[in-house]
Specification:
Blueprint lengths: L1 H48 L46 E4 L2 H9 L16 E4 L23 E2 L1 H11 L10 H6 L4 H13 L9 E3 L5 E4 L10 H7 L2 H6 L5 H27 L7 E2 L3 E6 L2 E8 L2 E8 L26 E3 L9 E2 L5 E2 L6 E6 L8 E9 L14 H7 L2 E5 L4 H5 L3 H4 L10 H16 L5 E12 H9 L11 E5 L10 H7 L1 H7 L4 H6 L2 H6 L37 H4 L7 E6 L6 H4 L7 H9 L2 H5 L2 H7 L4 H21 L6 E5 L13 H6 L8 H20 L13 E4 L3 E4 L5 H6 L11
Helix pairs in contact: 1-2, 3-5
């Protein structure tokens, strides 16, 4: 057993001796290489001293050198060296390997290509790398490295990390290029100095910077001189841009940077000046979490926050139509005395214009020319489409009916709603020779129409201050309001007031008699009110004016044409005054270019008065009612009943076709590009599509109770709001004048609406069309 142990020991000793011999041989080879490198460097230096140096120096080809010559532990040492290093102050032993100076290595590589400037001193001292396997404690110091008084400010690990990162940045972005260095005659050592200065010399006061890590690792001690030997380019690299400007040491790169900054500043100043001159602000601030201000041509108005949108109600848009302004066209607020001081509280709605309802009751005030604005936000940067609502059941009264703006839909659909009040009835449309004599245009009547025109002018002037787009105004009329809107298509300045038109359940025919006939027909009213001149009319009491209106001038519920009905003898409120209305719409519409959508509902003429005529509309009662009309007189009852069922729904559809649907269809065919729709989706106990079915769906007041009705609401809203935003109806073929859009659960194009050709052939259409 002992013999085996001796054998193992002998083998280990032999291996140790062999290993020791190998290490000695390697150490000897390395020392020979070091000595040979030193001799060659000294020889090159001595040869360089004999070469004369010009004033500008010699051109040296740049060579990439690791920036700073960082010492890396263990790369040039072995774990066990026979040679001891110098002892530190604490007596600890460390193993250091002496490397030739960096400059000597560079000179050796470049000696066959370029000469080295002998006037420059060495930029780097000898590189010493600590053996990481040494037993020297972390607290020990190497007197040759750590205790030198000439070392600069000590650097941390962060600077050591920065070195390779900075080297990745292109030289052009760091203020100099290789080409410039070569032209200036900078040698390789200078280039290394600049690189080290950029990355290591953050402190300008440090003359000989050194990097030291917290764990005892040390890097190259740089002996960097601040002298530049008159090289202005090198001085420029060491100075900041501000210092170079102060010392008037600027290069082409500096001038390019300054020119770019100057150009940017000029552009920024121009943009600010333009916005300041325009007076634009991004948005009006909300006060107390509830109120917001907007500016108008007559002063500031204050709106109130409601359901996520802002409501401005009761804003005056024209002078009060009272006293001397009674029975005169609307006059805009273009005088200072007509405006208000301070900020107008536009929180509450004002009463409508004075009117007479279908049941004979009256309400409203004479001083009524105000409007409401509903907007999602008060701002200037994103103007939204504007919808102007013109609603009235008839030209005598019933305004604004159900055509009221919705704050919820203004927010959800991103649109603005504007609803103006306008005069109706006797105060809005009285035509008389006594009034014409006092008018500059020698005409009278259509005052309510002039109110709408002035309201649209107000929108063009002020709506941008409420967040609206004056170039995207859709005027939306319903019933008598639709009649007034379509009448505006013949106004010569219509294209400057609105962008597109949507009318629902309006009239398909317009007055055809000249103004003299109207004035003579209205003389009977002057007798009732006991006035012979305009001064008497304008000074009369408002109650006398309203109560003197004949019953026959009031609007009646729609029904089948009566046997004794004479359409030409019915009272007409609109007048061909030669000023606002110059000719029949049938002759004007083909020449207009404004986009138009015309529509109605399948049972528009259904009314409570007709429904309550009998407690139960049986087949016999429906047939009896038809026989007692102009249809019975024409002897076409049986044919009509075959086309419509003998029920209340069939009777309502029959009246609607004669009075509204077919006249509007005929009107839409007068010009290509007009989309025409009919709502056929029914609802309610009577299972009809009443006169308000389309507008309640559009404004969000329709109450769907079945999946079919929910689909209808979505289809109607998509049809309308897409038109408001884009001015087109996707489903419509605008090249086909005969096409009708049947709006039920979906929007379905059909070739012709049933039965219209029949009523036209029987001379019921457009003869008996209603004329609201």
């Amino acid at each position: 057993m002992s013999a085996e142990i001796d054998t193992i020991a002998l083998q280990e000793e032999r291996k140790s001796l062999d290993k020791k011999e190998i290490e000695d041989e390697e150490r000897e080879k390395m020392l020979n290489i070091e000595n040979k490198a030193i001799d060659e460097a000294q020889k090159i230096e001595s040869d360089a001293n004999d070469v004369p140096v010009t004033e500008e120096g010699r051109e040296v080809k740049p060579k990439f050198i690791p920036i700073g010559g960082i010492k890396m532990p263990g790369f040039f040492t072995r774990s066990k060296s026979k040679e001891k290093c110098k002892e530190g102050d604490d007596g600890a032993q460390g193993e250091l390997l002496e490397m030739p100076p960096v400059e000597e290595v560079v000179a050796k590589d470049n000696v066959e290509e370029k000469e080295v400037d002998t006037q420059k001193k060495s930029r780097f001292q000898s590189l010493k790398i600590r053996n990481p396997f040494s037993k020297k404690s972390e607290d020990s110091k190497d007197p040759d490295v750590n205790n030198s008084e000439e070392t600069g400010q000590k650097r941390g690990l962060l600077n050591a990390i920065r070195l390779p990162l900075v080297n990745m940045i292109p030289r052009k972005l760091r203020g100099h290029s290789v080409g410039k260095d070569a032209e200036a005659g900078l040698d390789t050592a200078k280039t290394a100095e600049l690189a080290s200065m950029e990355t290591l010399d953050d402190n300008k006061d440090a003359e000989k910077p050194e990097i030291k890590n917290d764990d005892g690792m040390e890097t190259v001690k740089l002996d960097v001189e601040d002298k530049t030997d008159g090289n202005t380019d090198l001085n420029k690299e060491k100075l900041t841009l501000r210092e170079r400007i102060r010392q008037q040491k600027l290069g082409l790169d500096d001038l390019a940077i300054m020119a770019g900054l100057l150009l940017f500043a000029i552009i920024l100043i121009i943009i600010i000046a333009v916005n300041a001159s325009a007076g634009y602000i991004v948005a009006s601030p909300i006060k107390d979490g509830r109120y917001v201000d907007a500016v108008t041509s007559c002063g500031y108005v204050e709106g109130i926050l409601e359901d996520g949108a802002f409501a401005f109600r009761g804003i005056p848009y024209a002078r009060p139509p009272t006293e001397e302004n009674r029975w005169k066209p609307a006059q805009p607020l273009n005088r200072l005395e007509s405006c208000w001081n301070g900020t107008l509280k536009a929180h509450n709605a004002t009463p409508p214009c004075l009117q007479i309802h279908g049941n004979g009751t009256t309400d409203g005030v004479e001083d009524c020319l105000t409007l409401d604005v509903i907007t999602p936000h008060v701002r200037y940067d994103t103007p939204l489409p504007v919808i102007v609502l013109i609603g009235s059941e008839s030209l005598v009264g019933g305004t604004p009916s159900k055509l009221r703006p919705s704050t919820r839909y203004a927010r959800s659909k991103d649109v603005l709603f504007v609803r103006p009040n306008f005069r109706v009835g006797i105060l809005g449309f009285l035509s008389s020779s006594t009034l014409s004599k006092t008018s500059p245009t020698l005409t009278s009547g259509n005052y309510g129409l002039s109110d709408i025109i002035v309201a649209l002018e107000w929108v063009q002037l002020n709506i941008k201050h409420f967040g609206g787009d004056s170039k995207a105004v859709t005027i939306f009329g319903h019933r008598a309001g639709a009649t007034l809107v379509t009448a505006l298509l013949g106004y010569e300045k219509a294209d400057k007031l609105f962008t597109r038109v949507w009318v629902s359940s309006g009239s398909g025919v317009y007055p055809g008699r000249d103004i003299q006939e109207y004035e003579e027909a209205n003389n009977a009213y002057l007798d009732l009110i006991k006035c012979k001149d305009a001064n008497c009319l304008r000074s009369s009491k408002i109650d006398d004016i309203i109560t003197s209106v004949p019953d026959t001038w009031r609007s009646a519920a729609p029904d089948l044409p009566a046997v004794d009905e004479k359409p030409n003898k019915n009272h007409e409120w609109l007048t061909l005054d030669g000023f606002l209305l110059k000719s029949q719409l049938m002759s004007v519409l083909p020449n207009t270019k404004i986009p138009v959508v015309i529509g109605t509902t399948a049972h528009e003429s259904a009314s409570n008065k007709l429904l309550m005529r009998y407690s139960n509309w049986t087949t016999e009662l429906v047939t009896k009612h038809i026989n007692g009309s102009q249809i019975g007189k024409a002897g076409i009852v049986d044919e009509v009943i075959k086309r419509y069922n003998a029920s209340y729904q069939g009777l309502a559809a029959m009246i609607t076709d004669i009075r509204t649907v077919c006249p509007l269809s005929l009107l839409a065919k007068q010009r290509t590009g007009i989309a025409f729709y009919v709502v056929t989706q029914t609802s309610g106990e009577n299972n009809i599509a009443d006169v308000d079915s389309d507008i309640t769906a559009i404004l969000g007041r329709y109450e769907p109770k079945t999946p079919e009705q929910r689909r209808y609401v979505a289809a109607m809203q998509q049809l309308f709001y897409h038109y408001v935003w884009h001015g087109e109806v996707i489903q419509a073929n605008t090249r086909n004048n005969n096409q009708v859009l049947d709006v039920g659960q979906d929007v379905l194009p059909i070739r012709e609406y049933p039965n219209c050709d029949f009523w036209i052939s029987k001379d019921f259409v457009p003869r008996y069309a209603h004329q609201d």
